[in-house]
Specification:
9-stranded mixed β-sheet, 15 helices, 14 strands, 5-stranded mixed β-sheet, single chain, alpha/beta, binds glutamic acid
Length: 388
Amino acid sequence: MSERESTVKVVTNEHSRDVLAKAKRIVVKVGTSTLTYDTGRLNLRRIESIVKQLADLANQGKEIILVSSGAVGAGLAPLGFKEKPKDLVMKQAAASVGQGVLLHMYEKLFREYGHTVGQILLTREDSMNRSRYINLRNTLYALISLGVIPIINENDVVSIDEVKIGDNDTLSAVIASTVEADLLIILSDIEGLYTANPQTNPDAELIHEVDVITPHIYEIAGGAGTSRGTGGMYTKIQAANIAVNSGVHMVIASGERNDSIEVIAVGGLRGTHFVARDSKPHMKKRWVAFGKRLKGSVTVDKGCADALLKKGSSLLPVGITAVSGEFHEGETISILFNDEEIARGMVNFSSADLDQIKGCNSHEITSILKIDSAHTEVIHRDNLVILR
Ligand code: GLU
């Protein structure tokens, strides 16, 4: 077994789940397939069981945030649509109708169980822009302090590609990172992450615990470039990457079972647990790495990777071997070593300038770029997040 594969534990260490039972602030994400039938109508039995479990956790003193999809799905039946419209504006119209239907149902059910909800609709711009990000965080904290359960979705009515988060797996992880949640539970139509595709491989086993998100984990989740659509396992691994590197534990479990949330919240064995890193990067670093949009990447050599990972250094031009994508100063890029993303950070140079100074010493930057003064680091340590 290769070193990478050995990081996948099929047999769980049940003690690692004890930490989940202590989680106080919990973000739960539910997908459209969990909330609606193929007919385009709401699965009321399931919604009711989710609301009841969440209300019960809130009664125990836990702080709950719900990220719910289903706006487009719930808008289909009232508009007489048989399937999700392909046309963007029709999809947005469906989301406008469906978000109301959904919220009405949540509000009614949570009220019956004695809880107040607040709606938040977001686009990528709300996390990319620093002051909006801080506003969002403050509002979430205010709602939590008031004992309100925030219910969050992408603002599909105004979302177009440029401003879209795109999938609620990522949205829920960004929210969990923003509010420093202890635990993110993603409910899906599958039990968790398997060692292979369970539909085609009878030997596929459920992985109970993932300590490190290696490229192998992405591979078994569908491989880069495939199943990136909403609801795929790949987006869930990307979400796990955001969560664990923000110090948040994450569990993917089946939303088809009526007790997944309460079982996970007492540390019971359900789904796949992605173990959080011990350290939690500062709020500004979490925003740089996960709130903003990735605009490109640089590849580094071994000496540079070691300096970043082991010595806590800044990224200098000398260790950069390749630059990819088009980006400007101040944008967020990935740092790659051996095809693996090892860090993310806010870059001090454009991709065009980096192409010229890659592999050079810092004192050569001004003469190569023909400028009077320049940063000596490509990414300063204070704007850099190491991903394990
Ligand atoms: N925001 C979309 C909706 O509510 C769903 C996105 C997703 O499921 O990831 O319909």
